[in-house]
Amino acid sequence: MSKVRTRFAPSPTGFLHIGGARTAFFSFLYAKKLGGEMILRIEDTDKERSEKKYEEDILSGLDWLQIGYSEIFRQSERADRHSSLLKKLIDENKAYLSKGERGERKEVIRLRNNGGEVVFNDLIRGEIKTDVRDLGDFVVAKSLEEPVFHFANVADDGDMKISHIIRGEDHISNTPRQILISEALGFARPQYAHIPLILAPDKSKLSKRHGAVSVIQYKKMGYLPEAMINYLAFLGWNPGDDREILSLKELIEEFSLEKIHKGGAVFNVEKLNWVNKQYINRLSENEYLKIAEDYVPEKYKNNAPDYSPSLKKLLLFYKTSIVKFEGLKELFDSGELRWFFGLNEKDITSEKIVWKNDENKATKRHLKEIVFRLKNLEDFSSENVKAEIQPLADERGRASVLHPMRFSLSGRDRSPDPFSMAGLLGKEETIKRLNRAIKLLS
RNA sequence: GGCCCUAUCGUCUAGCCUGGUCUAGGACGCCAGGUUCUCAUCCUGGAAACCCGGGUUCAAAUCCCGGUAGGGUCACCA
């Protein structure tokens, strides 16, 4: 059996969206699985709609997702080859120049179609038969210099020795005519595999109005590429067991076209978020910080308060609570982190410091005891603070002790636990805030 | 509309080929409880589906037929 060679052939008339990325990824996975390779072919024959920025977006999207290709071609660079193939077809009387019909603009080149039935075996859907008569002598080129999509596509697949064409199911009805062209050109017929579409929540075809257009948008939102390809792979495919989180290596090992579904799959951000979270959790501290720091708004960068040992510890603290890195940015922008960057003293009132029906006097006593216990603590880590304070809380009532401490430090009804905050704030600032609260209660 | 494709919890899906082990399994989300000073995390539990109708069979989510619904495609765009 000859070498497996697949291709991803996007036209640079739009961004690399979720669906395209998955198609590329399946093509890539299949080639890798079979020890072959995938090539990238930019189909830029539509000069009006093709744009460089789209090509760049496609390239960077593939790069981000680590979808590698062994070679890259631009269809526009193969114009000479296309016209000579077209000439050959005309010379062999398999195609002919035809006058424009019904007021159509000019002469076009049509393929002679003898009709009959075209049958092909789709690797995912099985045998598909099409009566090809009503196609008529269809157009393959606008002129010798301007081949139509079908022609250029087939010519390139033939020349580039593509063994497997893996593409979206919207191409399934194009396949018969492409087979006709391929046969006229004398190429060996490739295997076809049409994968189901990715749907929007309302089951319609996923499009711009359903959110992010380019996969690069997901990069910007702080999704990890490993999470993205993992999730994408599971849209219409799964390894057949209960595993949900698979590395690229495992994906390659497990992948098979037979396990791809026939029905479309709805793109679900919630699940993507969950997958992403799994990957964030697995990041080492350094890997995490490297990315996290890019999501700190400018005004907070290098602007950590004096009392802060480091911004890094703060970022690390929120590692388990974000679902994507953009969540960090939201934390900063929402004021959620005000306890760290600048407490608003007006937020702290004696009523709020005191837990439910506790007395001011008792609360004050608790806070004083906390200060007393922390004053001489050498290593002011969250763990050590907890070791000092937890017994006190257990003894006098957890809420009665911990709520005042937490509120004194954060000025918020919802905040991290007091031990973590104390550790992040440092000894001096922690005691300063506690004393301020004690004063308020007097 | 023609042609083609598809159909299991709200969503992603296992099971279907090789009928019984399926009172249909897992995951996300949701709800409840637990852990907890709050929020989040984490743990436990719960609600939630075989599109409909016929047929074959002792037995059908699984096989067959017919509906219905959804999607794709019908370009001198890709």
Q: Percent of residues in beta strands?
A: 5-15%
- Distance from N terminus to C terminus (CA atoms, Å) equals 87 Å
**Helix-strand makeup class:** alpha/beta
Quick one: CATH superfamily of the domain at 1-69 and 196-282?
Answer: HUPs
What's the CATH architecture name of the domain at 1-69 and 196-282? 3-Layer(aba) Sandwich
What is the CATH T-level topology of the domain at 1-69 and 196-282?
Rossmann fold
Overall pLDDT metric: 91
Strand order of the largest sheet: 4-5-8-9
Work out the helicity level. 40-55%
Number of helices: 19
Function: Catalyzes the attachment of glutamate to tRNA(Glu) in a two-step reaction: glutamate is first activated by ATP to form Glu-AMP and then transferred to the acceptor end of tRNA(Glu).
GO molecular function: ATP binding; glutamate-tRNA ligase activity; tRNA binding; zinc ion binding
Main location: cytoplasm
Domain Glutamyl/glutaminyl-tRNA synthetase class Ib catalytic: 3-97, 99-274
Characterise the protein shown here.
The structure is a single chain. Among the domains are: 1-69 and 196-282, HUPs (Rossmann fold, 3-Layer(aba) Sandwich); 285-341, no CATH class; 345-440, Arc Repressor Mutant, subunit A. Helices cover 45% and strands 12% of the residues. A 4-stranded antiparallel beta sheet has the order 4-5-8-9. It is an alpha/beta fold and 442 residues long. The model has no long low-confidence stretch (mean pLDDT 91). Helix 17 (398-410) packs parallel to helix 18 (418-425). The protein is built from 19 helices and 13 strands. The longest helix is centred in the first third of the chain and has 16 residues, at 18-33. The protein has helices at residues 18-33, 52-64, 79-91, 149-159, 175-185, 215-221, 225-233, 248-254, 269-282, 285-292, 311-317, 326-333, 338-341, 350-353, 360-375, 382-396, 398-410, 418-425, 427-440; strands at residues 5-8, 37-42, 71-74, 95-98, 108-111, 117-122, 126-131, 139-143, 146-147, 164-168, 191-195, 198-199, 265-266. It binds one RNA strand of 78 nucleotides through strand 7, strand 8, helix 4, strand 13 and helix 9.
